[in-house]
Amino acid sequence: MALDTESFELLLAAVQRFVRERLVPAENILEETDDVPADIIEDMKAMGLFGLTVPEEFGGIGLCVSQEVQVNYELGRTATAFRSVFGTNIGIGSQGILMDGTPEQKSDYLPKVASGELVMSFALTEPDAGSDAASLKTRAELDGDHYVLSGTKRFITNAPRAGAFTLMARTGGPGAGGVSSFIVPADLPGIKLGKTDKKMGQRGTKTCDVILENVRVPAANIIGGVPGQGFKTAMKVLDRGRLNISAVACGMAQRILEESVGYARDRKQFGKAIGEFQLIQAMLADSQAELLAGWSLVQDVARRFDGKPAHVSDPDISMRVSCAKLFCTEMVGRVADRGVQVHGGAGYINEYPVERFYRDSRLLRLYEGTTQIQQIIIGRELMRQG
Ligand code: COS
Predict the structure, then answer these.
(1) CATH dotted code for 120-228
(2) From 118's CA, which of 18, 89, 111, 257 has a CA 20 to 30 Å away?
(3) Is residue 96 classed exposed, middle or buried when 0-12, 13-18 and 19+ CB atoms within 10 A define those classes?
(4) How far is the CA of 236 from the centre of ligand 1 (A)?
């Protein structure tokens, strides 16, 4: 599955223009209102951004992973909250249905996802199950042809905007084998949302608890129809999600670098532009080199991803995804830190975009698996391969 090259080039150019002309100028509004303006969301729907990765047969654009990472690179060049409006839809919110869903689940949900009519979000994390995702406690008890779900999901991105969740709950015994993934419509009786989290950065991205109290979900809503497969679905979804976070990290690093070079050209000290000093150039050079290394890695892993069927997982590719997530998200942390340093005191003032990117980038090392979880995945696979 991929969009033909000519159409993709046009789409990418349109996304670049949209980021430059619509999103970058709205970054301050986002920061002040903690929300994405409604007219921007409408423009995103009109551009087809809600259906980027949904196959054409279900009304989407049908990008392959190599194309998706390029779009995410461009979106990384502005505030992350813009992407989060539709990012869960085309990413972790709906990929489970795409990868492992039954034909009925695909035809019921994916067209609505692609049009933006249905916003989906991914609900795995719980108060006591973060990195140790397989220990999740949300119960799903079979009762006739329904499951009754009770539990709390935490830090759920886009929950306040979601029409449905891809939600992991325990249908069986302890551990990964007891977990199933459900499609849970957000308006079912018994679902409540907690208050919106106040975060360090990524303002405009909405996250909150999702509390389930005896929520009756049809058994037919188990993704793929077979209980006990949900942890694997979640991990496969996260593999693709982590690669996309890596692409966002590279785009963000590119923007921070551009802001830093621009500042270094304009700002004069000791009688000349600070960019003429080699100590400033050294910081810019390190950022450029690391950014190019990260982006090459992302594109390589994306090509490997495209070389296999979407629903099949490959431990070697999962390991490489973790390398990309680890390297690129740590890399953007260093680039953001240097960006602030190049700006000097101005970099600590919120008039300059680097201040916001410094805060926004911090989350990339945490969500969709911390750096330490990526290290564990890489280390385990190295030991397995021998
Ligand atoms: N694709 C497909 N299947 C996978 C997989 C992948 N990428 N990773 C693991 N699995 C399978 C394993 O093969 C295993 O299957 P079997 O029981 O048939 O052998 C099963 O899933 C359990 O895997 P594992 O034993 O590795 O599970 P662990 O409990 O040890 O946990 C980690 C694995 C730590 C990697 C996992 O819990 C994780 O990624 N944690 C971070 C969670 C996260 O990213 N949270 C962010 C939430 S979204 S913002």
Answers:
(1) 2.40.110.10
(2) 18
(3) buried
(4) 9
